[in-house]
Design brief:
69% of the residues lie in helices and 0% in strands. By secondary structure, it is an all-alpha fold. It has one domain (3-168). It starts with a helix and ends in a 10-residue tail after the last helix.
Length: 178
């Protein structure tokens, strides 16, 4: 990892953290709760073209955001693990980017939903299933919206030559042809 990679990691960690804090200040419980429509998670698919700096940035950013809005040590530790697995999966599946974004939503849904039911009741609409399963479904659906729709759209925009080429000409390492 060189200085540019470390800088990009810091940018992603900062963006992820700030987006979560601002979203929570403006939108309340949809950032941290039984329905986690975390807008910052749309940064996770960018690991497909920006690689390990993006993976590490969204992981560390999740750690910082979860530590700032302290729920429990479980959330502070397992939330970043979920982001790391999601971003790594997207990076490894980068040749099939839409599939990668869909697959990336599942670690977040399963891991975060797997413990979040201990702190919040799941949405009423999912009351026909066990509490833990309802939370896993809720978080997975939220993650699919943010990663496979918003994040994939951001990925498509970011891959455009008019967006990525000026950044690459300044030294950004990005895989535009996969």
């Amino acid at each position: 990892m060189d200085a540019r990679d470390i800088s990009l990691t810091a940018v992603f960690a900062s963006l992820y953290t700030v987006i979560n804090i601002v979203q929570t200040m403006l939108g309340g419980p949809i950032t941290y709760g039984p329905v986690q429509l975390r807008i910052a998670d749309c940064l996770i698919p960018l690991a497909a073209i920006l690689g390990w700096p993006a993976v590490m940035g969204v992981t560390f950013g999740c750690f910082l955001g979860n530590a700032y809005y302290w729920l429990s040590p479980i959330d502070v530790m397992l939330g970043p693990v979920a982001n790391f697995i999601a971003a790594s999966s997207i990076y490894w599946l980068r040749k099939r980017q839409l599939l990668a974004c869909v697959v990336g939503a599942f670690p977040v849904g399963v891991i975060v939903g797997g413990y979040l039911w201990l702190f919040f009741p799941p949405p009423e609409i999912l009351g026909f299933m066990p509490v833990w399963a309802a939370m896993v479904v809720s978080i997975t659906l939220s993650s699919l919206i943010v990663m496979a729709i918003i994040g994939y759209g951001l990925l498509v925009i970011f891959r455009q030559p008019g967006v990525i080429e000026p950044l690459k000409s300044r030294g950004l390492k990005a895989a535009t042809r996969i």
